[in-house]
Amino acid sequence: MSVARPYQPRRQQTVDRQQTVAGMKARQSVKIREIKEALVASGILTLDEQARALGLNRSTGWTVLKGDHKVPASQRQSSTAY
Length: 82
Description:
mainly alpha, single chain, 3 helices, about 80 residues
């Protein structure tokens, strides 16, 4: 049985969806950063070692752990934060 939703203009629906996606991406970014920090804290320092520990090849490991390769430069955090 479906529940009727209150009417929302299309623009509001789009804004809500964009905010949901942005929130999901932000949570994902935090989790990836936590994984990277845990690897470093465990003494796994090089990208090769980190990728191997995650069961990834080096290029996929770089893409995942770098995390900001598709983020506009104006929104990137300093690489020293990693």
